[in-house]
Structure formats: structure tokens, C-alpha cells
Amino acid sequence: MTERTVETFRGPVSTDDLGTTLIHEHVFVGHPELDVDFPHPEWDEDVAIETAVQGLERLWDLGVRTVVDLTVLGIGRDVARVAKVADRVRVHLVASTGYYAADVLPAYFSTHGPGRLVGGPDPLLELFLRDIQVGIAGTGVRAGMLKVVTDRSGITPDVRRVMEAAATAQRRTGVPITTHTHAPSRNGLEQLAFFREHGVAPERLVIGHCGDSEDLDYLRELMDAGASTGMDRFGMEHVLPDDVRVATVLALLREGYADRMVLSHDAAYFSRVTPPSWRVANVPHWNLENISRRILPRLHDGGATDEQIHQLMVLNPARLLTPSTPEEP
């Protein structure tokens, strides 16, 4: 039997070695043009790299073995920079591909692609496939996950284009898709319907930010269809308190959904959107250590078993990250 592996910054890793996994995180979030022309006063690359290295080493000591970095184009992905972190830590880092476009893409995409002014193949699909099959931006680091976004605006024409390219890339490579959703509008259902129509099995989907919702009917509908829900914003208490997030997970565990949820934070070691000083003052638990230090003990106290925690933190991420069999060319 061929060993099942997942691509990381340091190359393929056996699925059995992924261990406890945070499946929706960021190392650094930026904005390429602003970073050049209007740099954030709190950004110092050397300091940020050292902060990330120390943070990931603490995570290892807490038992975390793998972190998926879902920073894609549109929010400052710089794989070469993150590789400087990955080379110094014991935690496995997984890179991702996709485009963070909640409404419109940059103008380049309006002129490039089939039937457009300049023409040629779809650059989004070319990008996603290259990132997965060859490597990202000449680094040789291959993406292990696809990321797409729908927010309040829903599936706009440009968002649809990103999702279509992601669906094709998923079918051709077997790499899973994770999403950003706007939980109040329940638009994970729209995402699920879209990807099913485009040939992506629900079992290859993580519908993200479901932890922002207390609507159990909504969450059940996603999971009953075969998708996994990302309970992935622990610590983001300006959106929803952790106590409420824990209660939702416990309720779904009691109903037998342990095999359809993954836990994470959607945190970062630096983000210019919500910089470190703001986070420390306003959301002090929004960091990559929150689940290990605060949330897992609360889940245990609420009745979650060791087997259920292992399912949430180890078995589910490993199953999702393992590429499925690609479709025939």
C-alpha cells in the first residue's frame, strides 16, 4: 500500500505523523501594496519571524504537531518569508493556495482568461495547479489545501470564478478545499451546493467559520451532507465569546458529530488588519495557544471524551488533508 502523505513546507509528511493539527491559521497577514507604500508601524520582519518561531515552538511543547497556514493571495501570502520560520521549528507547516476575494478580483483577471480581452487560459486555475503540483513562487513548497471566500456579498461573478478554478483544481489534484463564510447569512449552504454542482465531494470540504454560528440546524445540515464544519475562530471573542463556541461544539458532540468538526483559531502572529497591540488589548485569547490552554480543558469539563478530542484534533484533520484520488485527465 502506498503511504499517504501531505505536503508541508519541508516536503511530504506521512498522514500518521501529522498529529494534533490546527487546520485554519495564519502566520503573517499583510497587504503587498500597503506593506510597501504605507508600512504598518508594528511590522518588523526580523521581529515577526522570531515571534512566530517562538510561538510555534511553544505550540510543539503544548502537543501541537501541524499548523495549516491559510494565507493565500489577496492577504499577503509570502511563502519564502514563512519558509524562514518553517526551517527553524519542529511543527509541520502546511501552505495553501487560492485567492482571498470577497467581492472582486484585481483588474488583471478581467482581461486575462478565455473569452477576455487578452485571452489565454484561466490564470487562476494555472496558479492553483502550479502551487499544488510544482511549488509556490519558485520556492518548491507545494500547497496542501485550497482556500476560497464568500462573505456578505455572496457568490459574485469574480468569487464564482475563484470557486470554479478551485473546484477544478480539487478534482485534478485531490487537495481539499476550505472556505471563509459569513455565518449569519448561512452561506456555507450556498458554497456546499456550488461545489457539489461542480463535482467536488462534500467530504473534501471544510466549511469555515461555522463556529461563529449558534444555529444548530444550519450546522447539522452541512454535516449531514458530508461536509466538515470549521469551528475555527476560538479566541475571536469580539465576534462570539468562547463560552458560546464551546457550548456549540459540546452540543454537536452529544449528537454524534465528532467526525465532522475541526477546531482552530484563524489567528496570526502578525496581521495588519488587527495588529498585535489591538489583539493584546481587546482579544487577549485570540492566539494559536488558546485551544490547547483553555478550550480543550473546557471541552473535557463539559463532557467531551478523550476519544472525541482525538477525533477533532488528530483524525479529522488528517483525513481532510490527505489528498483524494485525482480525476483522470
From TrEMBL:
Pfam families: PTE. Keywords: Hydrolase, Metal-binding. InterPro entries: AryldialkylPase_Zn-BS (IPR017947), Metal_Hydrolase (IPR032466), Phosphotriesterase (IPR001559). The modification N6-carboxylysine is found at K147. PANTHER family: PHOSPHOTRIESTERASE-RELATED (PTHR10819), PHOSPHOTRIESTERASE-RELATED PROTEIN (PTHR10819:SF3). Belongs to the metallo-dependent hydrolases superfamily. Phosphotriesterase family. This is Phosphotriesterase. It comes from Nocardioides cavernae.
